[in-house]
Amino acid sequence: MARQKGFVKMTVKNDNFDKLIKALEDLDKYSVEVGIFASDDSFYAMIANVHEYGITIKPKKQFLTIPTKEADGRKASDIPGLFKPKGKNILAVQDGDNLKVMFILVKSVTIPERSFVRSTFDEKNDEWVQFMERLIDKMLAFEIDAKTLFERVGAKAAADIQEKITTLRSPGNSPITMENKGSSNPLIDTGGLRARVTWRVVERNA
């Protein structure tokens, strides 16, 4: 069977025509979702949302308590002898003649926007389109099927987002956050956020 338009002629063997139509129908059947899914881990989905869009956190009462390195991961209720010195917005313990500051008290904390999903989509869109076009050529040559195509696109997109998390440096962490983390990378502490970036191929209207 032949189709001709202008100077371009495409020839498809009759025994492959039905197979080609099915492949094209499957291309419209699937889509791919990339990110951190609440159904997988609601805590990290919340963390991802905070960094992606930014947020200002205000206390339920008077102050937010920001731990220093001296707190060593403990809550205020876990530290005996903790008190607020008069006129100072800190919580501390007596250390001989000195004070050991465990928490800094603040009225609010603003976490700036550090987009790693939307920004990667913007930066990599053309590259992803070209990658998908190459995969479509493979699909039309019956080397892969439509679902495999979307799996590969999802894997590439997820890897690029993970790379963005690894390399993003601005806006940076506050000095106290860097001291507590021991790192200047604003999106990496334990690596849990990066590890949870994944993808899933879904059927449209399923």
Total beta strand runs: 9
How would you sum up the global shape? elongated
Q: Helix tally?
A: 6
Termini gap: 33 Å
**How would you write the strand order of the largest sheet?**
5-7-6
- Could you spell the SSE succession in H and E letters? EEHEHEEEEEHHHHE
Alpha-beta content class = alpha+beta
The overall pLDDT, averaged over residues, is: 86
Low-confidence stretches: 1-8
Which sheet architecture does the biggest sheet show? 3 strands, antiparallel
Question: How would you sum up this structure in a few lines?
Answer:
The protein is an alpha+beta fold and 206 residues long.
Walk me through this protein's architecture.
- The protein has 206 residues and is an alpha+beta fold.
- It contains six helices and nine strands.
- It has helices at residues 14-29, 42-53, 118-140, 146-167, 175-181, 192-195; strands at 2-5, 8-11, 30-35, 55-57, 64-67, 90-95, 98-106, 109-111, 198-203.
- Strand 6 and strand 7 form a beta hairpin.
- Helix 3 (118-140) runs antiparallel to helix 4.
- The radius of gyration is 26 Å and the shape is elongated.
- The two termini are 33 Å apart.
